[in-house]
Specification:
Blueprint: E1 2-6, E2 23-28, E3 36-37, E4 39-45, E5 51-61, E6 67-68, E7 74-75, E8 82-86, H1 89-96, H2 100-109, H3 117-122, H4 124-130
Parallel strand pairs: 1-2, 3-6
Antiparallel strand pairs: 1-7, 2-4, 4-5, 5-8
């Protein structure tokens, strides 16, 4: 699955999947959380082009001190050292509404720390500083 990062001034509403493959957009949120700018809105398009507004997610990087988390404009999965965390229960409830293969692909690609205990352990020190 391809993830595309877009600016908060842009809108995922104008994007849609024409490829027949699932894809996701991370819409950067300009929210300043005590010096960290790590919030995104996750919008997922399934293979049929149906849009799913998943919700807010924070993406962290081990060793990050302040500022924006640096991500590639497009990626298949976050690299080692990164992790994500949905910002409320509805994020995970919305993911549960997706087919299992899609849900697992998203959680693994975004290195979700609730989903994967090993990632949570890897980033435990970073989470203490993260906020």
């Amino acid at each position: 699955m391809r993830f595309t990062v877009i600016s908060y001034t842009d809108s995922a509403r104008r994007y849609r999947s024409l490829s027949g493959e699932s894809e996701a957009y991370l819409v950067r949120d300009n929210w300043d959380d005590y010096g960290f700018r790590t919030s995104f809105a996750l919008v997922y398009f399934d293979e049929g082009g149906e849009r799913h507004e998943i919700g807010q997610v924070k993406i962290m990087l081990a060793g990050m001190t302040t500022g924006y988390v640096v991500l590639e404009d497009e990626f298949e999965a976050l690299n080692h050292g990164y992790g994500s965390l949905g910002q409320d229960q509805s994020y995970y409830e919305t993911l549960l509404e997706l087919p299992e293969a899609s849900r697992v692909a998203i959680l693994n690609a975004l290195r979700d720390i609730v989903w994967d205990d090993a990632i949570r352990a890897e980033l435990r020190g970073a989470m203490a500083d993260f906020g």
